[in-house]
Amino acid sequence: MMMYEDGEKVSLNGKGTPSNNYLHHSEKYGDPEEFGYKYIIEQFDPSGFDAEVWAELFAKSGAKFAGPVAMHHDNFAMWDSKATRWNSMNYGGFDPSAALKEAIEKRDMRFMASFHHAFTWKYFGPAHAYGDIDPKDYDLYTNPHELDDDTPDKDFYTSWWAKLKEYIDKYQPDLIWFDWWLENMDEETRLKFLAYYYNQAEKWGKEVAVAYKESTFTTSTAVKDYERGRPNQPKSPAWLTDTSPGAWFYRPEAQFKSPNELVDILVDIVAKNGVMLLNVPPNPDGSIPAEMVDLLTHMGSWLEVNGEAIYSTRPWTVFGEGPTRLPEGGHKIEKLEIAYKAEDIRYVKKSDQLFYAIVMDRPDGDIVMKTLSTEIGALNSKILEVALVGSDQKLEWKRNERGLVIERPTDFPTDYAHCFKITLEGYVENDIGGAVEAHMD
Fold first, then answer.
1. What are the residue ranges of helices labelled H in 107-153?
2. Given a cut of 90, is residue 20 above it in pLDDT?
3. Is 248 helix (H, G, I), strand (E, B) or coil?
4. What's the pTM?
5. Does residue 409 have a cis peptide bond before it, meaning omega lies within 30 degrees of 0?
6. Contacts of 100 (CB under 8 A, 6+ apart)
């Protein structure tokens, strides 16, 4: 955002001093008033993009669904669009949505697309306030309006829907994910979208889903999403987390989470009835950074061994135990430093006779699963077998008043969270709530 102060143009960062974004833009492109976002679009050169490389990496990572950011706040369509001239075919000469859909579905993954263009109305408000926008470019920047204007005009609604409808009809995505601010648009528009998308899916003969933030929809009509966050207890119905291992976009010298951290977050999400949507920020040329390739490959290696404890599982009576807990659930709680320990265990079930206990770090000694104590009563069923997923080692174990006590395996098949497969004679869940909570610390 730009403003004039004492005759000089600066970027408003809340302190009246130039922000790093403003300084970077000025150095690389020139004065934002003269070289605005339109100029950046004209420099778009995705020469390093290869949909086959992207999709192959996603498949290797263990992902079951993937797809592009179809349109971000910048109102630029990442597809060959007739609904807007500001698209990747006109500026870049390619259609990443079409290429990724083909490559992703060829590898038996579901195809998704994310839409962030509800916020475009606010996103380009500063351009009108502090720039000199040519009226012929209002189809990019939206019609002129005040910075504090939260009421999109008729043209905005028409354009927003035209782009979304075109994408639905052209690419038939399995999942449409929405960013925030859509809750500020009128309910009629939101319901029109839901009805159209779901009715089209009926015609296509396939199941689809919508993910939303804030109060845009309800859990009876769409899937609740938590940005960089998650509940601190299981939630029903199933929900979604969107997170990124680093920045949301390319940033030189960006810092990324480790594979260990991401695996732990994934395990905690699944134990609470959630699904992870992981952002992959590409390089400016459309290639994927080496750090992301390494991270996704490591996640895939872990899932190749332990995927049976993740895919097609559901929360158990108790989601977990151990000293490491989120103080509260919700959006953007990943800013908290959370390091799971070997005493932290997460539970998921596969069937009435089979469930998994996932130990979040490598133990130094015996593993004690307090929740499975004979005194607590979380499990009124005989355990027939305990096995370490990915290992042929025969484990020594016993169940008593302390819990399920497993002698430490001599070797572990993976470097991160360790999955123990527990087979039962019969499966009975008890609602023991508070009794287990007493053993979580």
1. 120-123, 125-130, 138-141
2. no
3. coil
4. 0.91
5. no
6. 51, 54, 55, 66, 67, 68, 111
